[in-house]
Amino acid sequence: MSSHESPYEARLKFALSAADSAGHLILKFYQSANLAVEPKRDSSPVTEADRGAELLIRELIEQQFPRDGVLGEEFGETVGSSGYRWILDPVDGTKSFIHGVPLFGTLIGLEHEGDCVVGVCRFPALKETIYASRGSGAWWARDDGPAQRARVSAIKKMSDALFCITTITGWERTGKQPAFDRLCRAAGLTRGWGDCYGHILVATGRADVMVDPAMNPWDAAALVPILEEAGGCFMDWKGNTSIHSGNGVSVNADLREDVLQLLQGE
Fold first, then answer.
1. Which of 55, 59, 119, 235 has a 20 to 30 Å separation from 17 between CA atoms?
2. What's the pTM?
């Protein structure tokens, strides 16, 4: 934890602890031969780990901050009265989790009066946590050791950039295949390191652009403060800072305008 205090410090510390607790629960199911997988109404998969982790985090919030609201992927919204709202994705990258791939994360975001002010992303299988609160920087802890500052890259040209995606079919399904093709041609390298892992690669300077053609608020809320405090930005395909646009981009500051032009076909 940084020594830099913010008005959100108590909730950030809580979110880090809650993500760690959820991670221990999730790992009990990870690479299990008996993992039960069910399809949701949108045909995406859900597991005992997703549901159990969200319930655990919700219980911890109820105990510590009972007036705060909660929005979660698995159990919907509980309206609060404090001006704070937690936004939860207990296992972002469920398909990776189901396949035994360690690139899944627990996302805990916090809004204050509608503004995303705290973000925590915990990768239980990798023992990595990236977190931020507004005005206090972004931080990256590995192997549960001391946190170091997280910063986006200084890459200035798309031809030098590493561009990440989650899945090609998502671009096809949303009618965005031409944008994908333009980005691939412009980027120096394209890799399918997706879901929250791709966005966090940008926040930690290991990739330069991550684009999702389909995102929900719980996929995005934690990423806004992390990317901004790391010196980059999280935006929708029109360049707005929003978690409600149904799509999202994480990018360093120097490539922002180039990526927008490629997305919009200009």
1. 235
2. 0.96
